[in-house]
Design brief:
0% of the residues lie in helices and 51% in strands. With 61 residues, it is an all-beta fold. The chain has one domain (4-60). Strands 1, 2, 3 and 4 form a four-stranded antiparallel sheet that branches. A hairpin with a 2-residue loop joins strand 1 and strand 2.
């Protein structure tokens, strides 16, 4: 089940950094992104909301 917060859906994607290391990133989107898949919220994160823009973000507990 995908995690949603006020109309925003949480997605995940694996990216390769310049040094060659792979890393999983999480991002919120209202639309379906070109790449990435819906996911559940990781257990060690909480959701914050940017006061100026209203965009949600993940923050470590």
């Amino acid at each position: 089940m995908a995690f949603t917060h006020e109309g925003w859906t949480l997605y995940t994607r694996d990216v390769t950094l310049k040094g060659g290391r792979n890393q999983t990133i999480y991002f919120f989107s209202k639309r379906t992104p070109k790449s990435g898949s819906p996911c559940d919220k990781p257990s060690n994160y909480m959701v914050g909301v940017n006061k100026r823009t209203g965009l949600p973000y993940l923050k470590k507990k």
